[in-house]
Amino acid sequence: MPAPVTGVLADLERILLTPEQIQSRVAAMAAELNRHYAGKVVSVLALMDGALFFVADLLRHLDMPVRLYTLSASSYHGGTASSGQVRMNWPAGLDFRGQDVLLLDDILDTGLTLSVLRDKVAAQQPASLRTGVLLAKKRERVRDVVVEDIGFEIEDEFVVGYGMDYQGRFRNLPCIGILNPA
User: Fold this and answer.
1) Which residue from 64, 67, 85, 132 could staple onto 43, CB 3.0 to 4.6 Å apart?
2) Is the pLDDT at 4 greater than 70, yes or no?
3) Beta-strand (E) ranges in the chain?
4) End-to-end Cα spacing for the chain
């Protein structure tokens, strides 16, 4: 008989992805990126804070030189659904002209945040632009967006853990789960 779930995990309705499943998939994604970017220097633009764990784990598996840039961008603003407006803090002087850029985010939901960011990077005329997400929700998108690398496709549910939060909580979970509605 399994031990009772205690602590922060007790707030989950269920675990969607275990730490082992996540780590295995992140390693497979990195292997594909190693093949794709062989012999190149890659400029990684990571969306924080939700993608922190995913990006850290993925970068540790990459075999090429990486320039890392972080950016805060969100359309959630503390809720469980997109507000429809993207807020971002684009650093002054950030320019990807002529660089191979890998845009990384935790989750593809409405497509709004990633499409806005892809458009902004593409306008700077990078040598190449590729997008990767750990999770992609199976749902209709508000904006179409090209995402070449997807870790897992999930149902349209609000998830927490492995960097993703609800009102600042649950980021530190090693798994990805569905919050208990209670």
Assistant:
1) 67
2) no
3) 12-17, 42-48, 66-74, 87-88, 100-108, 128-137, 149-154, 159-160, 176-179
4) 25
pTM of the model: 0.88
Relative to beta strand 159-160, strand 176-179 is: antiparallel
Diameter over CA atoms, the chain: 57
Cβ atoms of 107 and 82 within 8 Å: the answer is no
Token pair, residue 87, equals 């807020």
Active site residue 149: no
Q: Which of 105, 109, 149, 165 is flagged as catalytic?
A: 109
Q: Which domains does the chain have, with CATH numbers?
A: 19-155 (3.40.50.2020)
State the pLDDT at residue 81.
Answer: 57
80-96 pLDDT, tens digit per residue, is 555 567 778 887 889 99
Q: Report which of 9, 104, 128 is spatially closest to residue 50, judged by C-alpha positions.
A: 104
**Cα distance between residue 162 and residue 174, in whole Å:** 5
Determine contact, residues 159/138, Cβ cutoff 8 Å: no
Q: What's the pLDDT at 78?
A: 53
